[in-house]
Design a protein that fits this description.
The protein is α/β, with parallel strands linked by helices. It has 15 helices and 18 strands. Strand 12 and strand 13 form a beta hairpin. The radius of gyration is 20 Å and the shape is globular. InterPro entries: Alkaline_phosphatase_core_sf, Phosphodiest/P_Trfase.
Length: 378
């Protein structure tokens, strides 16, 4: 099986916040993205805004299109938990440890990283798994604050003090917002003083893509709102400020070439857990069954997916240049990355996720590439 070639020439999403802090003069960081020296830096992450999607719908986003500099590569898996952690830590999934939408945490079971619940049955793990247990590195916000930078996180009030927020975004002042208006106001306030760094998050475009499909009319109308959001932020930038707009992943529409694990008994033989998501699966084998599970998944999925042993996926660099010893066991014994428009659903155990029109997670350019948009106020 030919493996996908990872594009080493395209900068990673994990380089964004280190570059931003380097521009502010914070020691220990390097600007690889061209922020240059700044007195204030903002980063807005628009969930689900792929580079190819923006290019295809440039007329709906003239501000973003005009300011777009280049694509970034998000790394594997191309999913929100991993992307937010890359922003929050400045490293890839093999180091920060959020290796999927859901993944097996040794001694705990399968953790849904967004909801902090056991996956898929939903048992609340807030009191059983600490954020520091899952993500062990200091965040860039904590490092910025320690260096005297005014670090602020602006995101939905719903995410205030959630375990995922504490795992990957802690260390700065958290401002919970309700709508686009107070998001713009909060970012503007956070960047009002010199020596400020502000990270903001907006998630509605991703929701429209999952529900209606990327490129659908509802998705395009939401993209127009995002473009107006960016325009409003740019209009309010103080002198000496750089504002970057990025995303955590792109998105594709599934075709009919899907496999339902729950309807294929062979795919559960020797398997103790299946995690990840439709386009990026972790398969955990019973002791002694890895080779059989690998062979079966390869046979059933055929050319619908790349199906690799954990060691081969790590060696190929899927999870970044470094995989920490405590992170490696979280990666499936078998790693499955969907090709084309295929997917691996679980209609019985994951009915909501399996019903979504738009999906992401795998290694296609549509999922991997996101915009690096840069606005500067001199």
């Amino acid at each position: 099986m030919d493996l996908p070639v990872l594009d080493a020439e395209t900068p990673l999403l994990a380089e964004v916040t280190p570059s931003a802090l380097a521009a502010l003069g914070v020691p220990g960081f390097v600007d690889t993205l061209g922020f240059d020296s700044r007195t204030r830096v903002g980063v807005l992450l628009v969930d689900g805004l792929g580079w190819e999607l923006l290019s295809a719908h440039a007329a709906d986003a003239p501000v973003l299109t005009e300011l777009a500099r280049r694509p970034l590569r998000v790394g594997y898996p191309a999913t929100t938990a991993a992307g937010l952690a890359a922003i929050g830590t400045g490293v890839t999934s093999g180091e920060h440890g959020l290796v999927g939408y859901s993944f097996e945490l040794p001694g705990v079971g399968v953790l849904n990283a967004l909801r902090w619940r056991r996956h898929p049955d939903g048992e609340d793990l807030h009191d059983h798994v600490s954020p520091a247990q899952v993500q062990r590195l200091p965040t860039v916000f904590a490092r910025a604050a320690a260096a005297g930078v005014n670090a602020t996180v602006v995101s939905s009030v719903r995410f205030t003090d959630t375990p995922l927020t504490r795992a990957v975004l802690s260390g700065g002042a958290y401002v919970g917002v309700h709508a686009l208006g107070d998001l713009v106001a909060a970012v503007s306030e956070a960047l009002s003083a010199p020596g400020s760094f502000c990270y903001a998050y907006h998630g509605d475009l991703d929701f429209m893509g999952h529900l209606h499909g990327p490129g659908s009319l509802p998705w395009r109308m939401q993209l127009r709102q995002v473009d107006r959001l960016v325009e409003s932020l740019v209009e309010n930038l103080p002198a000496g400020t750089a504002l970057a707009v990025v995303a955590d992943h792109g998105m594709v529409v599934l075709d009919e070439d899907v496999v339902d694990v729950d309807a294929e008994p062979a795919l559960t033989d020797g398997v103790r857990a299946v995690a990840g998501e439709v386009r990026a699966r972790h398969v955990y084998a019973e002791r002694g069954a890895v080779d059989d599970v690998l062979a079966t998944w390869r046979e059933v999925l055929g050319d619908r997916a790349w199906v690799l042993h954990r060691d081969d996926a790590v060696e190929a660099g899927w999870f970044g240049p470094v995989v920490a010893p405590h992170v490696a066991p979280r990666i499936g014994d078998v790693v499955v990355a969907a090709r084309g428009g295929a997917g691996v659903v679980r209609r019985t155990h994951e009915p909501r996720e399996s019903a979504l029109v738009g999906q992401h997670g795998s290694l296609s350019s549509a999922e991997q590439l996101v915009p690096f948009v840069l606005a500067e106020a001199d």
